[in-house]
Design a protein that fits this description.
2 strands; about 0% strand; two-stranded antiparallel ribbon; 12 helices; flat; mainly alpha
């Protein structure tokens, strides 16, 4: 009966393994890990709220007075990040980059916020998986209740079923949201690439972020562009190995 129980739980266990695999390619110390740190994280670690950083209310007042003032939108984004309101900071940065589409620092910061958001949803999915596994651990090994001499058994414990169903819903929702956030990060990096086409670091960050959404073709293209721009970079060997791994992943499985 153990394997029967195990199969019933296999769906969300597979999802959990897929989540771990999603981060498996982040090996360069840039991009998805470091880009997820926005200016708000830096300010909170240092002098958050001090110096020339406006409060959120002050920054909102400035934007209300001059909604098309790029500097006002930028200050609002910084204030919101400092206050930990990253979703609202994203909106302000979108407004700012619409007004200043060539600001590389702002585009990278926006991409970092999207990555942070995606990572948060991944953590939410993993926590839901771990919690469900803990709550249903006993039922995995429990023998089902047998009825009569014929050996007929009752179905799965309704409590276990409810926990598993809720976990699946939470995990699937979080995965969907994380992929949407990573996709938005990719789009932002593509805007950054159009502004700085000869920056190898941007290509590297785009490649890693594309991997997060399984767009291996786009990731390979960005990695190859990185090698053209920086063939002697210390990461070049890792990038070449990564390209081979992704190319292998794109190959159809061999016929059995």
């Amino acid at each position: 009966m153990f394997f029967t129980r195990l199969r019933r739980h296999a769906k969300w266990m597979f999802v959990f393994l897929a989540l771990i695999f999603a981060g498996g390619f982040v090996v360069f110390g840039v991009g998805a890990n470091n880009a997820g740190t926005g200016i708000g994280d830096i300010l909170r670690d240092g002098q958050g709220g001090a110096g020339g950083v406006l409060s959120v209310s002050e920054a909102r007042e400035r934007v209300a007075e001059s909604p098309n003032d790029a500097s006002a939108q930028r200050e609002l984004a910084t204030a919101l990040e400092t206050d930990g309101q990253n979703d609202e900071a994203i909106k302000a940065l979108i407004a700012y980059t619409t007004l200043r589409p060539k600001d590389q620092d702002a585009l990278r910061e926006l991409a970092g916020l999207y990555l942070t958001k995606g990572n948060g949803f991944q953590t939410e999915a993993q926590n839901a998986q771990i919690r469900a596994g803990y709550l249903t651990a006993g039922s995995t090994f429990a023998e089902p209740l047998k009825l009569g001499k014929g050996g007929t058994t009752l179905g799965e414990d309704p409590i276990t079923t409810a926990i598993t169903t809720q976990a699946n819903e939470t995990i699937n929702s979080a995965i969907t949201k994380s992929q949407e956030s990573y996709g938005q990060a990719v789009e932002t990096y593509e805007k950054l690439v159009s502004v700085a086409p000869n920056d190898p670091q941007v290509q590297l960050e785009l490649a890693q972020t594309a991997e997060q959404v399984r767009d291996y073709g786009k990731a390979i293209a960005a990695y190859e562009r990185f090698l053209v721009l920086a063939p002697d970079d210390t990461n070049a060997g890792i990038v070449r190995a990564q390209i081979k791994q992704l190319q292998a992943a794109l190959q159809p499985p061999a016929a059995g």
